[in-house]
Amino acid sequence: MNHYFTTDDITDLPDWLERGRALAQDPISLSHLGAGKTICLLFFNNSLRTRLSTQKAARNLGLEVMVMNVGSDGWNLEFEDGVRMDGGTAEHIREAAGVVAQYADLIGIRAFPGLKDREIDLQERVLKGFMEHSGIPVLNMESATAHPLQALADALTVDQFQIASGQAGQAIPSGGKVPKVVLSWAPHPRALPHAVPNSFLRIFRRMPVELVVTHPKGYELSSWAMGELKPTYDQQAALKDADFVYVKNWSSYSDYGKVLTEDPSWMMTADKLGHARFMHCLPVRRNVVVEDAVLDGSQTLIMEQAANRTVAASLALSHMLR
Ligand code: CP
């Protein structure tokens, strides 16, 4: 059974990127794959892009789609085994996951972390609970630790843009300079999860790029995300000669879930961006994370990223349907 839980479920990334290029040109070319099948999308948290792009991708593949806001409309789920359920939880994950599988062939789930207890969040109880007890393939629509649909869309965007500009392509360019991709932390008033930077780094560490990460001290990401990468705390130095700048806020991982600083000098500006292309997963707070001139300027790729969310979901769902 094929889940799409992290980008590590992509065994052959160049093949996925190549098929993504074809799907971008002909989105309904795989409309036979999901015929007669149903996907149930369960949202424990808000969404605009993930909800709409996954529905669109599912329909492009011929799937019937059911969507439920479980966070507001469903029963509170229990994840512990062997407990007496006389508190706030009304349904056990064992029954909930099994029941959804009576109505659907695939499940998509969005379930954010609580950002209170790192060990609990790392357990990924919602996604892993459905993977264990539903018996059908599960799509991660952003979990506590990973947002693999966003990361795949971001990789598709850089790949396609490099091809369009004739600089690189799906493989390492022979003798040419690989693009420099910078992940830059930005300020934000709320504590945000690590799922986007985690998945971004997991997939871009496999791309033919020079990858640089910059953030203030205290915002170091997990070794799972970083691998051998070392962060630089000097944003200006990190941005030098960048080709793509990916801006994202996240809360502290070591002082788990805390906002340590809102230093506005880390906001992305047109001046700092230079000639680089700007990327952000959205939603974004204007003039906090990035200034208007960047979002409204000609170097932004945010709509290309959003468009590639449908391609990414199509690739993930076709992987799950095979
Ligand atoms: N980037 C992203 O996942 O957007 P939504 O939270 O709106 O789905």
TrEMBL record:
GO annotation terms (biological process): citrulline biosynthetic process; L-arginine biosynthetic process via ornithine
UniProt-annotated binding residues for N(2)-succinyl-L-ornithine: 142, 188, 248, 285
Domain Aspartate/ornithine carbamoyltransferase Asp/Orn-binding: 196-313
Residue stretches making up the Aspartate/ornithine carbamoyltransferase carbamoyl-P binding domain: 6-159
Enzyme kind, highest EC tier: transferase
Gene3D superfamilies recorded: Aspartate/ornithine carbamoyltransferase
PANTHER family for the chain: ORNITHINE CARBAMOYLTRANSFERASE, MITOCHONDRIAL (PTHR45753), ORNITHINE TRANSCARBAMYLASE, MITOCHONDRIAL (PTHR45753:SF3)
Functional summary from the UniProt entry: Catalyzes the transfer of the carbamoyl group from carbamoyl phosphate to the delta-amino group of N(2)-succinyl-L-ornithine to produce N(2)-succinyl-L-citrulline. Is essential for arginine biosynthesis.
Family as reported in the entry's similarity comment: Belongs to the aspartate/ornithine carbamoyltransferase superfamily. SOTCase family.
Name by which UniProt lists this protein: N-succinylornithine carbamoyltransferase
